[in-house]
Amino acid sequence: MTTSKGPLDGVVVLDLSRVLAGPWATQVLADLGARVIKIERPGAGDDTRQWGPPFTTQSNGARGDAAYFMAANRNKRSVTVDMARPEGAELIRRLAMKADVVVENFKTGGLAKYGLDYAALSAVNPRLVYASITGFGQDGPLKDKAGYDYMIQAMGGLMSITGQPDGAPGAEPMKVGVAVVDLFTGLYTANAVLAALLHARATGQGQHIDVALFDVQVAMLANQATNFFVSGEAPTRMGNAHPNLAPYQPFATTDGAVVIAVGNDGQFRALCRAIGADDLAADARFTTNAQRVEHRAELVQALAPFLALQSTDGWIETLEAHGVPCGPINTIDRVFAEPQGVHRGLIVGQDRADLAERVQTVASPMRLSKTPVSYRWAPPALGADTEAVLGDELGLTPQEVAALRGDGVL
Prior knowledge:
Elements: E1 12-15, H1 21-31, E2 35-40, E3 55-57, E4 63-66, H2 67-70, E5 76-80, H3 86-98, E6 101-104, H4 118-124, E7 129-134, H5 149-155, H6 180-203, E8 207-212, H7 213-220, H8 222-231, E9 248-252, E10 257-261, H9 265-275, H10 278-282, H11 289-294, H12 296-307, H13 312-321, E11 326-328, H14 332-337, H15 339-344, E12 347-350, E13 359-362, H16 386-394, H17 398-406
Helix pairs in contact: 1-6, 6-7
């Protein structure tokens, strides 16, 4: 049996973050059932509402929110509060007193002047889990420096190993096509929040979570970092090749390319059988992965003519029949047309009253058998839930909300 309530049902998250890393973390929590209250600036909101084109279209034909905003803000309630006003900061403080979690991504110490930092809020809510996301962390020589995904990809080493190698056409350090540092930071933050919630429920004590984009990027180096630790040599750009495996890259076909991802010696022998090149499997240069990596250039040169003889789809059918990991290089439109993607329901459609079209976002990849994720609300219009949330959570009357709105606090 499954339940309609997610595993975080009853958990209240006060989201003071904007752009991507923080909202990604809170969307993960929201998908898992948490009640997320997103605090936004009156009249402006999250910066990403303007990060377009493309933009959605309102029912009256006017421009709506940017698609970027939609990617990270479903299942949330939008409340507009000006925290720079004492009355606004007090409303947020009162919401924090009732919350289980606060997530913020202001500069280090930036919320202290409003009395919304961890020290101030934990004093009135000792069980509060408070997650701070910054570019470089709460301490150290760069703690006051702003951090953005692109610059962190550069400073954290990712761009030094991404792109074509020196001497190849188009050689230069490259960023990844999506803001992976922000996304990984959101995931690490969500994991840390879940761990801290378990601790808080067991002890009644909250804690401060310090997540830095720079730290996350360095952690993301994974095997490339340990390659450096073991060898003493800094990894370099290798295009689409893998530093530790071969063949593990795309090969040209008659109508495009096929990615082949050989992870062990048995799969390499199967590849050779599939393409009619059994002699390569017996070649002393290629019998083990270590030898194939050492002789990568000769290996690629030997395989390429065989793979150029057939179409991408033809090779995929043949290689899969032999148990060789492979796949096409899909454009994003083809991703969502893939039969597997259609079967798994990777597109979530939701309605929002002010928009002319349904909002489409990518489904959560978390599939829980007992407490599945839920898609309760589309990414909200700016301030759409201000009156309802302040009424439900703080007991404010419509007249009180109207008065605060008239004073510019909301």
